[in-house]
Specification:
The protein is of the alpha+beta class. It folds into three domains: about 240 residues, no CATH class; about 80 residues, Transcriptional regulatory protein pf0864 domain like (Alpha-Beta Plaits, 2-Layer Sandwich), CATH 3.30.70; about 55 residues, Ubiquitin-like (UB roll). A hairpin with a 2-residue loop joins strand 19 and strand 20. The longest helix is centred in the first third of the chain and has 22 residues. The mean pLDDT is about 90.
């Protein structure tokens, strides 16, 4: 699966995103040719190498011979008419229209108006529309099967807009990013613009950490403003092999125990396994006042959560349980039987991620060793030899 991951540690703008996507293009000449032939009168583009605080990447600049003067107002119909006039692939145009549909919905919600009644200011200028169109054209050229976006840094403070000073994130940006993982910080300024937010919402199949993938190329879009951190948006293009994908979320329940006997702890572990735990682990720890204790970690599935929580409270002395969820990656396993001089032994064979492992199953090794009256290790080694000789 061809996957694009966007790291928005310094937010996102349409210019930064366009630069990062251009940096990824395998055929930059073709990409530049399409961008410069959008067919808008007086349009000029510059995609050039750039650097911020030692980080190299690309910068995107767009300007017009005759930009609108004063405060510019446009509605959704005007933006759609402009996009229809551009010489760009239909799929890219539809993406750009969907982006502006999102912006119109957000602006309408902020101002208490319908999407087609909204009057855009900065985001509706020809320059802004053309910048969004450039992003969508490059996105269409790359054609990833999936786009994943990191949690988005919004910045802090205020930003000057046509309506005056507005808090960061701007109201439309906040609307656009409802339900998306975002965070603020001590960097003052608007890091994520409304057009950047709308593009990310339209592009993203999901938001979260970088998936397990074989990265084939990286791109870096350099922003124009200077901050205490490198102002850039990084893009990673690669492949998520099916075997690299998570097997689902694992549920971990953890508690610390400083007043339970070893016998009771052993019994509790067995009861947790009977209640549906995938695995149970006990780790020696040192708690407050220098008390030796145990940390009990129980891994299960969402379907068994209630039963496991009940078992932890019922069979241990804990007064509280911590819960966390995380992706779980496993090798694909199967069981095969081999013949040894001491009887049949079952092997567990696990494969994936370019790895293959083979291990004799304890119960069958023990049974064969007892029946033959030989050491456990003798049967174990015989089973491994039988596997190698197959």
């Amino acid at each position: 699966m061809k996957t694009l991951y966007l790291e928005c540690a310094m937010g996102a703008s349409s210019d930064m995103l366009a630069a990062a996507l251009f940096d990824l293009c395998p055929d930059r000449d073709l990409a530049y040719l399409q961008l410069t032939h959008l067919g808008y009168p007086g349009l000029h583009l510059e995609l050039a190498p750039a650097e911020k605080m030692g980080i190299a990447g690309a910068s995107f600049s767009l300007w017009l011979d005759q930009p609108p003067q004063g405060h510019f107002h446009a509605d959704l119909a005007w933006v759609e008419e402009l996009l229809l006039s551009l010489d760009m692939p239909r799929a890219a145009r539809e993406k750009a229209m969907a982006v502006y549909g999102r912006i119109a919905q957000a602006e309408g919600a902020v101002h208490g108006a319908g999407p087609r009644e909204v009057h855009f200011h900065e985001v509706g200028s020809p320059r802004a529309v053309l910048s969004v169109a450039a992003c969508c054209l490059l996105w269409n050229l790359l054609s990833p099967d999936r786009v994943v976006v990191s949690p988005i840094h919004l910045g802090s403070g205020v930003v000057q807009c046509a309506h005056g000073l507005l808090p960061v994130p701007a109201p439309a940006t906040a609307r656009l990013l409802e339900g998306v993982p975002v965070y603020g910080g001590q960097i003052e300024g608007e890091l994520c613009t409304p057009t950047g937010a709308a593009l990310l919402r339209e592009m993203a199949g999901s938001f979260g950490p970088m998936p397990v993938m074989a990265v084939e190329k990286t791109g870096c879009g350099i922003g124009k403003k200077d901050f205490p951190r490198p102002n850039c948006l990084r893009a990673f293009l690669g492949r998520e092999e099916e075997a690299f994908q998570s097997n689902g979320a694992a549920l971990e329940l953890v508690c610390n125990l400083d007043d339970i006997t070893s016998e009771a702890l052993s019994f509790a572990c067995q009861k947790l396994l009977e209640a549906g735990a995938v695995d149970v682990a006990v780790t020696p720890i040192l708690m407050k006042k220098g008390r030796p204790a145990f940390q009990l970690t129980c891994m299960g599935r969402e379907a068994t959560r209630e039963a496991l929580v009940k078992a932890l409270f019922q069979y241990t002395t804990t007064l509280g349980i911590r819960e966390r969820r995380c992706p779980r990656y496993t090798l694909d396993s199967r069981f095969e039987e081999v013949s040894t001089p001491y009887g049949p032994v079952t092997l567990k064979i696990s494969e994936g991620y370019g790895v293959k492992r083979c291990k004799p199953e304890y119960d069958t090794v023990e049974a064969a060793a007892r029946k033959a009256g030989v050491p456990f290790q003798t049967v174990w080694e015989a089973a491994q030899a039988a596997d190698r000789d197959r």
